[in-house]
Amino acid sequence: MTGMTPTVPADKRPAPLGSASPSPLRPIEIVVIAVSTGGPSALEVVLPSLPANFPVPIMIVQHMPRLFTGVLAERLDRCCPLVVREAREGDEAMPGTVLLAPGDAHLEVVRKPDPEARTIAHLHQQRPLNNCRPSADYLFSSAARIHGAGTLALVMTGMGVDGLNGARRVHEAGGVVLAQDQATSVVWGMPGSVVAAGLARRPLPLAEIARELNVRVNAGRPRTASTESAIPAQATRTTPAPQREEIHGLL
Questions:
Q1: pLDDT 10s digits, 75-88
Q2: Active site residue 104
Q3: What percentage of the chain exceeds 90 in pLDDT?
């Protein structure tokens, strides 16, 4: 993997920042996130700004070694209204819950063979993709296969191109692809590759991501007191000091 900043072709440069893009025809059913270098601090900005009643499940691939992902999940769980835990085989993807891929295991979503056809986590040890295990391409592609246009994929700060092919599958299925902007990314390799491919037209500053997720996920749902409260005012959190990530071997 390299940390080179992708060049964005002139005809694929992002539109100016403004209001959120029109909502998809199908309501969002799941949010999947890819993040690597700079990820723990970025997640500590985004996830605490999401409400406990966030109406869909979130699954995350953070490139980290085994054991460190469990520590990260515990840390995020302490600072978030959401329930955050390291994913286990067969865990049900539930609203208000965040499942983090364990280090050295790929995470996918599958349908449980029961009358309700619930979405559950599946872990496996297939070969690394993009030199990564876990790989966001596995997670994104499985979400596109199971949830189709109901998938929202977010690519955040990180080195390399993991998540690009999976984001393409989400885009082809009619889902939503978002990417963090260059200015607030520690490394713009992963989100930059998605922007360069024309899959995410509006790169988002880190402080705007939580609000964008709330707007997108609540679009098309009945407007109630709970959904109104799920769209917070502009996030005001600041990114925690990067040195906090040294314990995870990411810097």
A1: 999 999 999 999 99
A2: no
A3: 73
Does residue 124 have an active-site annotation? Answer: no
Whole-angstrom Cα distance, residue 247 to residue 228? 38
Q: Which is the catalytic residue, given 36, 41, 49, 141?
A: 36
Rg over alpha carbons for the chain, rounded to the nearest Å, is 16
Of 57, 66, 64, the C-alpha closest to 93 is 57
Catalytic residue status for 162: yes
Domains of the chain, each with CATH number or no CATH:
24-218 (3.40.50.180)
Q: Which of 91, 137, 162, 181 is catalytic?
A: 162
**What does the pLDDT look like over 22-68, one tens digit per residue?**
444 689 999 999 999 999 999 999 999 999 999 999 999 999 999 99
The catalytic position among 41, 49, 63, 135 is 63
